[in-house]
Specification:
Radius of gyration: 20 Å
Bound molecules: coenzyme A
Strand order of the largest sheet: 1-2-3-4-5-12-6-11-10-9-8-7
Structural class: alpha+beta
CATH architecture of the largest domain: 3-Layer(aba) Sandwich
Largest sheet: 12 strands, mixed
Number of domains: 2
Helix content: 25-40%
Number of strands: 12
Strand content: 25-35%
CATH superfamily of the largest domain: Gcn5-related N-acetyltransferase (GNAT)
CATH topology of the largest domain: Aminopeptidase
Shape: globular
């Protein structure tokens, strides 16, 4: 079986468009009810992944695989095979190439997500163990109530578009350590945030034509108690809430609710064309799921993370 590795940074649009075609072919079984990403969005997504991580792309006739390496135990694969071409070994052949690359890079654990019986059977056959479940949910932002946020004493809400101002970058990076104790599987070490990674992410989003929207709760001394990220492609009707975190010492005061409400209210005011906002949370993250549900998010799909142990983690090149 011919499998071609492509360099997404330099590949032609028609080559990267194959990743869009596969995404469309698998959309309804994986993300039922969610708007699809456009061809241009998917091309830009793959071409402009952040420079601070290693990403690899493979194309087979009937399937695609993408590898995202953040660290030796924080490495993810996305593998899609056209429904009309399944059970012919395409998925296995792609996975073989992905695993070989992981071994070269010193990756100790490779993770993927499945949400269908076929995906579960494929992961089990590959020898992967099941880990946490991830709940994908969706907000009909037009119909959502979104009351004005109650801001806890000593904090004010601040929103930035595109770029964190230089003077607030160190405080923002410090606050991002709130993500370090988000529920995670065993032997999963997602490298902490750095100023360089924040800037690389901003650069990647700008090149993808995606608006980076960040809302923080800032204390009088400039420290950040909570933050929430929202992303939106130009002209799209679909927004995506990415990480939300409250630093350990400030939890239980309502900061996460305040930043989320503010972020969604501002999105609705700035982009009335947006119809749907999606997000994903670990099933066991009851605090964040409860908060999202109280705002109006409704679960649409549950994914299971599956981990393939390849050996003792060495130093993966990010
Ligand atoms: C999972 C997926 C990639 C499998 O692709 P594929 O090309 O059909 O996989 P293969 O033909 O290489 O199957 C390898 C083995 O997996 C198992 N398997 C795959 N699909 C199965 C199914 N529907 N039922 C039972 N077992 C299945 C079988 O053991 C199979 O070997 P066999 O055909 O010799 O019995 C494909 O179903 C898909 O794209 N699903 C949606 C996305 C997804 O879940 N990706 C995986 C996680 S990243």
């Amino acid at each position: 079986m011919r499998i071609e590795e492509v360099d997404a940074r330099t590949a032609a649009d028609e080559v990267l468009a194959r990743f869009h075609e596969l995404e469309l072919a698998c959309h309804e079984e994986l993300r039922p009810g969610e708007p699809v990403r456009t061809r241009d969005e998917v091309i830009a997504f793959h071409r402009h992944l952040p420079e601070t991580q290693t990403s690899c792309h493979w194309l087979a006739d009937g399937g695609v695989a993408t590898l995202y390496v953040h660290g030796p135990t924080a490495t993810f694969v996305n593998l899609l095979v056209d429904p009309s071409r399944r059970r012919r070994g395409i998925g296995s052949a792609l996975l073989e190439r992905v695993v070989a690359r992981c071994r070269e890079l010193g990756v100790g654990i490779l993770r993927g997500h499945h949400s269908t019986p076929a995906g579960a059977a494929f992961a089990a056959r590959a020898g992967a163990r099941e880990e946490q479940r991830i709940v994908a949910s969706l907000l009909d932002i037009g119909a959502a109530e979104l009351p004005e946020p109650q801001v806890p004493d000593g904090f004010r809400l601040v929103s930035w578009l595109g770029r964190v101002p230089d003077e607030h970058l160190p405080a923002y990076v410090r606050s991002r350590c709130a993500m370090d104790d988000a529920p995670a599987p065993d032997e999963f070490d997602f490298p902490s945030s750095t100023a360089e990674k924040v800037r690389a992410s901003e650069e990647s989003l700008a090149r993808r034509g995606r608006e980076m929207r960040l809302t923080v709760a800032m204390a009088g001394d400039g420290e950040i108690g909570a933050f929430t990220e929202l992303r939106l492609s130009k002209g799209s009707t679909l927004g995506f809430t990415d990480d939300t975190g409250t630093v350990a010492g400030q939890r239980g005061k309502g900061l996460a609710r305040a930043v989320k409400l503010e972020s969604l209210r501002r999105l609705r005011a700035d982009h009335p064309e947006v119809e749907v906002v999606t997000t994903s949370n670990a099933e066991e993250n009851s605090v964040m799921r409860h908060l999202n549900e109280s705002i109006g998010f409704r679960a649409t799909a549950v994914e299971t993370m599956a981990a393939l142990v390849l050996g003792s983690p060495a130093t993966a090149v990010p």
